[in-house]
Amino acid sequence: MKPRILPTARLSFALATAIAALLSVPTALAANLYWDSNGTGTAGSGAHTGTWGTSIFWSTDSTGLNVGSPVLTASTTSADDLFFAAGTNGTTGTVTISGTQSGRSITFEEGAVTFSGGTINLGSSTGVSGMFFANVSGYNANSPIILNSAATVIAIANRGNQTVTFGATGTITGSATSGIQTLAIGNSTGSLNLNGIISDGVAGGKVGVSVFGAAGIANGANFYTLGAANTYTGPTNIVYGGLVISNASTFANTSAISASSLSRKVVNRPTKLIGRLRHSAKAWLIHCQPWRGATSKSLKPMR
Fold first, then answer.
1. Nearest to 78 by CA among 29, 134, 123, 27
2. Nearest alpha carbon to residue 137 among 236, 48, 31
3. The pTM is what?
4. Strands (E), 105-254
5. pLDDT tens digit string along 235-262?
6. Domain segments of the chain: what residues?
7. pLDDT, tens digit (0-9, with 9 covering 90-100), for 265-280
8. Are the C-beta atoms of residues 131 and 156 closer than 8 Å to each other?
């Protein structure tokens, strides 16, 4: 199938600013809750175990000691910013999700976490929405994600040098009744593999994807991968960095694929397309790199 490549489009300043804010550290505007599976009176959190929704492991105490009168709860809301985990000693484990659980943002600070079962309703109408990965040793998402209907921009930002993988069951689905919900992926020096289907949902709105790579990605060291037969119909915009699309369905459904040049007010330097759409038997590669004083170019398929 021949991909549809549209002329270069410039992101609006408002959208670019919103995405840049999302890819930064989440701000504490509501309850900060920390996963603490090793009980009260013991610092830190221990292994990532338990069930989100039934285990009373969420705490407002970031140290994990839970001395005094911290709030302890099993469930969360879309106004909460969630952290894995309390203290600094979280270790590898699996957290089971019971039913549908909500959070405005989820930050992974230490220890590899695997989500299993259930559904995550991610985002909010206020504050910073998304999933943020620090220098954890790895992450596997096998639970589907629903983008909260009130959220317009939701980030997935890998800030460490590890590999973050969303499995085939780690789908991402929109739920807005109108407009476009932008999935902003980037700000990473590691790898991010989205192998679950990204789709609009059935409420009437659309989902689009915007890619913001870090310097390492822009220079070809690492790339983001869309590995599923995606059905989202919003635009795909590569601001800079490398995006690998390994299933032609993404081209068949997305409304546009473009590489954008951002204002100096946003990133201090515009971007230039240094590669063209490269096609092999398994994947298409779109690669953009920061370039001082350059202007954007249209994507053209290589022959």
1. 123
2. 48
3. 0.81
4. 105-108, 113-116, 119-122, 130-133, 139-141, 145-147, 153-158, 163-166, 172-173, 180-186, 191-194, 198-199, 206-212, 224-226, 236-245
5. 988 776 667 788 878 878 988 887 654 3
6. 1-24+128-303, 28-120
7. 222 233 333 334 443 4
8. yes
